[in-house]
Write a structure and sequence with these properties.
242 residues; alpha/beta; Rossmann fold; seven-stranded mixed sheet; two-stranded antiparallel ribbon; globular
Length: 242
């Protein structure tokens, strides 16, 4: 039920099996918003607001990648406005069902599309979106670097990629305590949601992306890294970046 996969060079992380992960999120979908908000002292929503504010503009075509219950995608729909469009993609139908209800309540359903898909093999063409967002959706996948590479692929040159994910605590004592708590929570997937600290910014920088915003937020035990990068434009006389 566990997969071991690269977290960053020289380290190893555990990840839940993809089918188990989907079942967990289907099961917690109705309570996900308050559960995740409670465990993160609402810093999760702060990260979403930051990313949408820094990455999305009116008229943008946006992909919310690993959209979950749509909390980020709905913010993006309001920011992109009537001339924009947002695609919410997630592996969990249960999470997307909650997102659909929220979209109807907020009367932005006409600006949205809902797609079931895999973050590690996005069902979209190259350079399809002005903006790709991922909020707390790269933390559970077994290959976060691949998820980041897929986000890069579907973003147009000059477009923006905004990511928020769990990161390691600072300070040896806090890090030691967080690891002990995490080891207990990991035995309860409905609590941990399969999330662990990841590192994907180096992958995007290696692909040529430029950082335009970066912040560290959240409670000391479970902090988040929030950043926006711009995908490079193709150089004159050279084929488009892939």
């Amino acid at each position: 039920m566990l997969r071991r996969a690269g977290k960053s060079p020289g380290t190893v992380r555990q990840a839940l099996d993809a089918d188990l992960l989907k079942a967990v999120y289907d099961r917690v979908a109705r309570r996900y918003d308050w559960q995740h908000g409670l465990l993160t002292a609402r810093s999760d929503q702060r990260g979403r607001v930051l990313l949408v504010d820094k990455a999305v503009a009116a008229g943008d075509k946006v992909l919310d990648c690993g959209a979950g219950t749509g909390s980020t995608g709905l913010l993006a729909a309001h920011k992109a406005g009537e001339s924009g469009h947002v695609t919410l993609m997630d592996a969990s139908e249960g999470m997307l069902a909650v997102a659909r209800r929220k979209a109807t309540q907020e009367q932005v359903q006409d600006r949205l599309a809902f797609v079931t898909g895999d973050m590690l093999a996005l069902p979209f063409g190259d350079n399809d979106f002005d903006v790709v967002l991922s909020t707390y959706s790269m933390c559970p996948v077994y290959d976060p670097a691949r998820a980041a590479t897929e986000a890069f692929r579907v973003t147009r040159p000059g477009g923006r990629i905004g990511v928020a994910h769990s990161t390691d605590p600072q300070g040896p004592v806090v890090k030691w305590l967080a690891e002990r708590i995490e080891n207990v929570a990991w035995k309860l997937p409905s609590v941990s949601l399969g999330c662990r600290a990841v590192s994907v910014l180096p992958t995007l920088q290696h692909l040529g992306c430029k950082v335009v915003f970066e912040a560290r937020i959240g409670v000391p035990l479970w902090p988040f890294k929030v950043f926006v990068v711009v995908k490079p434009e193709p150089r004159p006389g050279v084929g488009s970046n892939r």
